[in-house]
């Protein structure tokens, strides 16, 4: 291992980041073995390829500078995992993670250190007072031993990414719903810009969730791809001198996935499975597929709420627009009515001698009355026509 790169043992990645950075400036990988021991490695791509026996194209998927979709790939001796910030290579003996100093990667390493070490099977509760403790310890022991190393590491990665995305969705919900309610109560440039930023963040998060969801769904739909993830089984078949298609393996009749799958129907602790049996891995993936699906449903509900808010705002804007149209029509009607008086004043103001102007003083009174009636008729006609066409409210 010394020829593969510089190796530095870490007691825990929870120590201050400044101390880690001083001793690990150029290191980009952290290795967690089956005992939970963490080792920071300084490896180039050729050292990684030699260490885990993968091709360069598989290693490119884990390059943070390249934009690759989420992927869970099964290779001959390794599982290549690219899930958001979790970029790992899982073998039957260790887990290699990129960017060990990343704040989002350190919790994954700590969880691997806690979950990967085997539980002491010799500890069994004794006596009436310790009966429940013994049963619980036996259950935890069976949980840690019934899945192979690569599946336990894969479970930690899936749990980490699902929890991470779900936490981001909850944070977005906490910020979005009050902002949308405030926008409905007062439409302003500040509130509109705030909702616009939240909608953009929701779109980006939705795309990230859908990438992980689609990868899990695609993996669940293909039994051959799931069979490629059984590294321990493939190694046992390869090392066996004669394989007749069946083997007594570590696989349980009804596996458990960290309290997500019921243990009530568990049969015998071990059973015989053929090479194409992927029931255990399928149950593992389905549990986290349901979790990421629930996160996707949260974002879908939030998007529907945003769409409803946009519809409500559009209705309000249409109402204000109709009020402005109504005011404009009233002003137009008044202008037309006053123009009648202007027309009468223009006719009688002309300096043209008419014989009926003489000794007919009552004519002025009748002209004013008729002009008023005509103006009111024009005003009422325009208003009635506008209401009939639905341009203004009743």
Q: Care to describe what's here?
A:
This protein has eleven helices and nine strands. The chain is an alpha+beta fold. The strands form two sheets. It has a seven-stranded antiparallel beta sheet with strand order 1-3-2-7-6-5-4. It has a two-stranded antiparallel ribbon with strand order 8-9. It is rod-shaped, with a radius of gyration of 38 Å.
Entry keywords:
394 residues, 7-stranded antiparallel β-sheet, alpha+beta, two-stranded antiparallel ribbon, single chain, 9 strands
Series of H and E elements: EHEEHHEEEEHHHHHHEEHH
Please summarize the sheet with the most strands: 7 strands, antiparallel
- The radius of gyration over CA amounts to 38 Å
What's the total helix number? 11
Large-scale geometry? rod-shaped
Q: How many β-strands, per DSSP?
A: 9
Structural class: alpha+beta
Termini separation: 86 Å
Binned, the helix content reads 55-70%
Which residues sit in consecutive blocks of at least 5 with pLDDT less than 50?
Answer: 8-26, 121-144, 242-273
Strand content: 5-15%
The residue-averaged pLDDT reads 75
Spatial order of the strands forming the largest sheet:
1-3-2-7-6-5-4
